Amino acid sequence: MNSMQRFSNLLAGQPTDRRPFTLVLSLYGARLTGCPLDQHYSDPAAYTQGQAAVRETFLPDVLFAPVCTALIGAAFGAKLRFLTGNAPIIAAPAIESVQEWHRLHVPDPDRQPHLLYVREALRRLVAEHRGQVPVAALFLAPFDIPMMVMGMGPWMETVLFDRPTAERIARDLIPFFVKTANRLFEDGADYLLLPCAFASPGIMPREIVEQFSRPILAHALAQVRGPVALHHLDHPLLSYLDLLAGLPAVSAFSLAQADSLSRAREVIGPGPLLLSGPETQLLRKGATTEIEAICRAMLEDRRDDRRFILCNSGADVLFDTPPENIHAVRHAVESFGSSPA
Amino acid sequence: MPIATTPNQTEPALTDVRQSLITLIKQADRAGANELLDAWANRHGHEEVFKMLLEPALTAIGESITGEKHTLAQAYVASKVAEDMLTKAMNQPGGNAATEPTKGPVVLGNAESDFHALGRRMVATMLRSKGWVIHDLGNDVPASEFVDKALETGARIIGVSAMTMTTAQGIRDVRREIDARGLSGRIQLAVGGAVFLVMPGLLEEVGGDGTAANMFAAPSLFDRLWDQSIQAEATL
Question: Which of A270, B125, B137, B229 is the most exposed, having the fewest neighbouring CB atoms within 10 Å of its CB?
């Protein structure tokens, strides 16, 4: 049974040979191939080779198109800095304050080079692993894109203290969000992974998520033509799951290791996929026995939850994570056995 | 929500005013918080605002948000309210932003290749509200620049902020620079940033002398490190 069959059976309520699992190993592909990171994040062929190496080495059930939110900021004109051992970051925002927003040119996903790089890498991944492994692509919600364009401080200031302007900007970005998301689905993405900073319990008060973030997300996702997984970022998401459950297109939630999965299942109902697992920091520094034990405990906790998928929590797996720690996750899944129908 | 009073009205209980301020900040109501503080300042002066209202409120918020109810937005609003009051206090005739005897100076900045300024700026505001003199070097600061500035200004503490695991590794260079120049102990290295919250052991890994769980805990950390510096120098 290959990964695609495993997922098909899982979604159809049929038994599987084992639980599906995945890890976000977008950056890690470069470690496996030895590719310089500036090439990894600009050359679709190089990136695709990294994901092929990830698949060959760790056998995850989902591969990822480039996971790099800074590229979205760069598409608006922000300046990138390439690092050793990490995805590129934004060294200079496209604008310094919200007052400059009007002079920005919203990029076209059919023409902008950074977005075309992501799309081409995705297309190559889909072509290379078609029918065998699902591929997920990452994008940002309309209310998070300005954070990558002007920086966290100015956008936080706008959302908190000038809500009409924040709403106008976020709503103006919905067409760009919808077009790009749908292009990613047309390119073959099986899932869209959507971290939501400004709908996170670690960042925004509940009232602002209710009044600002959720309505924008609902409006945007209603126009998206594919399934979406909301991601917890670095913060537990459980306390806002009631706000995010039931949004259009959302059929999966990626939660933090600290979130209660049984409580989360109660909140979201039986339908959506639930993803969680060891944090990236634990994967980097933990002992293999500890990581495997944590994974086994989570699988045992979710034994009767057919729609649970083991996945690292937090962001991309860190570059200096020992490979044996990643193998430990796979070992836990393989030894746990088959999934009930 | 703000407890407004007129000269003819009875003064509201201080604890009630503090609680109102805490509530306003937690609701991200910067304007409401400022209105409340301005009303108090008109009656009692800006220095009293800091001593009687703002500092206790910020301390209480800091204690309450160390759990799961912490949001970055609430901390941000608290820092902006503190910044607003500092600005107003400075603009008073003979005004001085410091509400306590001047402390420091200290040097702050983001580690090399780190451009996440928000946390550093919030910490700087908290420190200033406690009377610390800050030399803020901004983002992407090379290790040598931190130490040069500390020597130039007589700072006993260098505070380095980093958002990610990768950029936090740049703090090792600051540690090496301090040690290489024979300044260990004399110059204390404070570190902070989101990555230190999620990764126990990173403080020791990068060679920091101390870290704080959030911006509200930064002043007490700097007090402690300043004392450590003086003690270390005395034993040399």
Answer: A270
Residues 6+ apart with CB under 8 A from A103: A95
Residue B74, pLDDT > 90, answer no
Q: Tell which of A97, A147, A157 to mutate to test the B interface (max B CBs under 10 Å).
A: A157
Per-residue confidence (pLDDT) for residue B119, from 0 to 100: 87
- The count of other CB atoms within 10 Å of the CB of residue A222 is 12
Subunit contact A203:B27, Cβ cutoff 8 A: no
Number of CB pairs, chain A paired with chain B, less than 8 A apart = 79
Measured in angstroms, the CA of B202 and the nearest CA of chain A are apart by 10
Q: Which of residues 36-65 of B touch A (CB under 8 A)?
A: none
**CATH class of residue range B14-91:** mainly alpha
- Judged by a CB distance cut-off of 8 A, whether residue B68 touches chain A is yes
CATH 3.40.50.280 fits B103-235, yes or no: yes
User: Which chain A residues are closer than 8 Å to B70 by Cβ?
Assistant: 202
Question: Which residues does chain B have within 8 Å of residue A83's beta carbon, measured at their own beta carbons?
Answer: 113, 166-167
Interface confidence, given as ipTM, is 0.87
Lowest-pLDDT range, A178-192, A298-312, B23-37, B58-72?
Answer: B58-72
Domain A3-11+18-336 has CATH 3.40.50.10490: no
> Cβ of A235 under 8 Å from any chain B Cβ?
no
H or E stretch including A252? Answer: strand A250-254
Ranges of H-type helices in chain B: 14-26, 30-44, 46-48, 55-64, 72-91, 117-129, 143-153, 165-168, 171-180, 194-198, 202-206, 218-235
Instruction: Map out the domains of chain A as residue ranges.
Output: 3-11+18-336
Give the pLDDT mean for B60-87. Answer: 77
Domain ranges, ordered by start, for chain B: 14-91, 103-235
Output the CA torsion sign for B128, B131, B136, B142.
negative
pLDDT score of A40 more than 90: yes
* B117 → chain A, closest CA residue: A153
Tokens describing residue B188: 């204390």
The pLDDT-based confidence of B101 (bands split at 50, 70, 90) is low
